[in-house]
Amino acid sequence: xxxxxxxxxYVVIAGSVTGCIYAIGAVGVTLIYSILRFAHFAHADMMTLxxxxxxxxxxxxxxxxxxxxxxxxxxxxxVGMAITSLIAVGIDRAxxxxxxxxxxxxxxxxxxxxxxxxxxxxxxxxxxxxxxxNLYVDARKEIFRIDVPGVTRPxxxxxxxxxxxxxxxxxxxxxxxxxxxxxxGKAMRAMSDNPDLARASGINTKLIITLTWVIAxxxxxxxxxxxxxxxxxxxxxxxxxxxxxxxxxxxxxxGHPYGAIAxxxxxxxxxxxxxxxxxxxxxxxxxxxxxWLELPNNLALVGTEYKIVVPFFIxxxxxxxxxxxxxxxxxx
Amino acid sequence: MNSTSNxxxxxxxxxxxxxxxxxxxxxxxxxxxxxxxxxxxxxxxxTRMLVEASCYAILALGxxxxxxxxxxxxxxIMGFVALGGFxxxxxxxxxxxxxxxxxxxxxxxxxxxxxxxxxxxxxGISRLDRIxxxxxxxxxxxxxxxxxxxxxxxxxxxxxxxxIESQVEFIGGLGLPVWLGWIVGGVLAGGVGYxxxxxxxxxxxxxxxxxxxxxxxxxxxxxxxxxxxxxxTATISPLPWPVAEPGDVGFLxxxxxxxxxxxxxxxxxxxxLHRAYHAPWGRMIRAIxxxxxxxxxxxxxxxxxxxxxxxxxxxxxxxxxxxxxxFNGLFDPQGFLPLNHTFLVLVxxxxxxxxxxxxxLFGAVLVYVIWIMSGPMALAVMHAFVALGSHWFDWQPxxxxxxxxxxxxxxxxxxxxxxxRFAPRGLIPEKVxxxx
Lengths: 332, 436
Description:
The complex is a heterodimer. Chain A is mostly helical.
């Protein structure tokens, strides 16, 4: 049983945490893709930017969350989301819109987004340095140990993880309601299906584009902050987040928000399962194994240092066998 | 970038036509800048800068054929540079006799053999449906065999590499001439490019960007963590040069000799690319870039041609990376950075003129000079800012050097955006000939 609890702690919980983060990130990427038709590479840096905004707010008011009993960063999250959305819309107006008006190829937009990536990275590191910082300023991360009867090892959950699960569910449900019920959400789906038809039927496409950036910026802030609450704020995370997020978006079918959520969890769990040391689970069977079969100490599929290989291979596999993704994305 | 057909129009091939004014002015200005650097920083430093710039020019020529000729964007130049650098290192450094005297090479050989056997086995199982095995059973069998085989081989490999690290530190090199390593580096990079291109080139161009970005990080992670092969973070130095070493003939002469080697390489590559560009093959490549559908209607094999040009570009990047690493004299996997080895090259190409070899060369040298000079400049600007900041806001940031580096990241990003916005065809645009 101890081994199962170990498995639960290190695979189920850890996988859900990474899955949530990738899912929220991938939804943002896929929304931008379906409205603006290009792969937005600066998304991971938008996550970092949003986290930085939250971090600065937390540093400014370290005890704002105390009356509510929540970490200050969570209380500051809406403000950070608003700031990041503003910046995202500003970036669009300053850099993407002129290119869009010129009617450039999507790949040029991709290069522009790489330029934005570098700009944001430079700015973030200019102000925040390159070291990691804890988002718990003047506070302590609470850790819950849930004892399971008959087992010595407890299930371990931390406060940010619980918050992460709750917030992810709220965000997903909210996004679903918005896309299916709200007028603007329906307009957004219409525009992703057929931009010309949407424009012809009187949908304000400019407003929709702005709205897309607001949603993408908010979701990016959400994902970045929740990730940083769980671990720490690292300014140089972006290139390592980029690949899993894009892999998640493509696995789920580009332009497909629900697919992106599924893809996020798939990639998250695949990563955790791949770096999990399976020999721990097999240890109780050690005595019953035949003698010629010696159980190695390390039975992980890939070492932790090669974690980035996992999303890459998922990506390659999907591109080979099903380039439209599991849920049949629209555009290849 | 909207050419449909082209004739030799650059001043280089048609000797009777005068060199166009724009190129003359720009190259004249560049020469003045380089001379100014020579005057202020001394010849040894400036020659080093020129050698590095020439290595970057090879990388930039690699990207210009991918992006400029064919419209494929490669965001993983760093990975190909690292591969080239590794190959140059592995071939040129002295042999580790301790390793070869032990039983470790044999064990490593067995592991490699097992790898080949497992791969062949899995491949064979995946073909079982040809002899009537149901497809579902075949897939299951192939996956199980692959997984088990992989686990066995990887744990075996882990034990061997662990022994190598603890007994002889790393496997050493081959002690062969450097140029062999450069060529093999190009071949390795081309092989990886073939693999990536094979998967992504038929799909939307965005996927290629993602895949190349990913493979670059993977190559870096592999080289960084394979201590048995590359000593990892412990780095390998010194690396031999293909010409006389600075220790024998002095810094300036050695660097000048190295520069002559790279310049000859660039001249050869330039000549070949120039011929290719104006040949029917180059015309076909541009036709595919500009209008895929009509090119396909003319019976051109689009994916094959794309694959070709992508692999060619990767080979150039591998060779350029090998030359760059050898010159630095230090193989440090952590020293390969997306900024220095991917985005800098990108700026060189889009600023100089994608699809125009001369423009690319110009961009490479100009951007590299600016890049090198921007280090001290950024630091000075940072000092000024901090002086103001501490005066007004009481802002006291630490480690200015690393922050100044980050300011350069910002500037490179901004430069990419400005060029795309205001000079999308570069300073020396690709020449499009019109036939009326």
